[in-house]
Amino acid sequence: MKYKKTELGRQTFKDRNVSLSPRQRSALILVDGEKDDSDIFKALSMMGLGAEDMNFLLEAGLIEEASPSGAKAAPPPAWAPSTAIQADTAELPALSEQARYKNAYPIAVKLTAGLGFRGIRLNMSVESAGSYKELMVLAPKIRDAVGEDKFAELAHALDFQ
Fold first, then answer.
1. Ranges of H-type helices in 4-147
2. How many CB atoms lie within 10 A of CB 113?
3. Following CA atoms 72, 76, 81, 84 in sequence, which dihedral angle do they give, to the nearest 10 degrees?
4. Once rounded to an integer, what is the mean pLDDT over residues 94-106?
5. What angle do CA 107, 104, 94 make, to 5 degrees?
6. N or C: which end of the chain has fewer CB within 10 A?
7. How far is Cα 33 from Cα 67, in angstroms, rounded to an integer?
């Protein structure tokens, strides 16, 4: 099965009007209407991404199934590559960290963006963080900048002690 970007997906890619993590943005880049879903999933797994990223893009209406006639097809309920590929990636230890990263990234961006000009460097560091571990390194700095009360939501998402 092949997937393509929807009009919303193309606009989101250009305008960055939907908050995507860098990894979700990478997944959106891979969807071009030409690659088969198994090829996309292999590329995603090499980048430490999983089916949850593709499911997010589907649920957000950023991608859809590409139909040969060009007619708009309804997206399936969940993006699922072949069983053999799922078995290979089920052993990847980064999936639980990826899920935490996916939840924590938008919170961290919101907190640091709220700091205004005084937090611009920290916000840029958060926006360039591409993994759970990179966010964990920045977590103490974020806590110091925003305070314990605001940091609590991010601490919960990161499972930060």
1. 7-15, 22-30, 37-46, 51-59, 83-89, 94-113, 120-128, 132-146
2. 14
3. -140
4. 75
5. 165
6. C
7. 9
Q: Read off the pTM.
A: 0.44
The pLDDT score that the predictor gives to residue 87 is: 38
Residues 6+ apart with CB under 8 A from 62: 5, 6, 8, 9, 12, 18, 28
Contact present, 155 and 143 (Cβ < 8 Å) = yes
Please, what is the end-to-end C-alpha distance for the chain in angstroms? Answer: 43
Burial degree of 108 (CB within 10 A; 0-12, 13-18, 19+) = buried
pLDDT digits over 30-43, tens only?
888 888 777 777 77
> Measured on CA atoms in the order 151, 157, 160, 161, is the torsion positive or negative?
positive
Which residue in 71, 59, 75, 89 sits closest to 3, CA to CA? 75
Residues 6+ apart with CB under 8 A from 108: 126, 129, 135, 138, 142, 154
> Amino acid identity of 132?
Y
Task: Tell me if 27 sits within 8 A of 98, measured CB to CB.
Answer: no
Residue 146: pLDDT band (50, 70, 90) is very high
Q: What does the alpha-carbon distance between residue 65 and residue 4 come to, in Å, rounded to a whole number?
A: 6
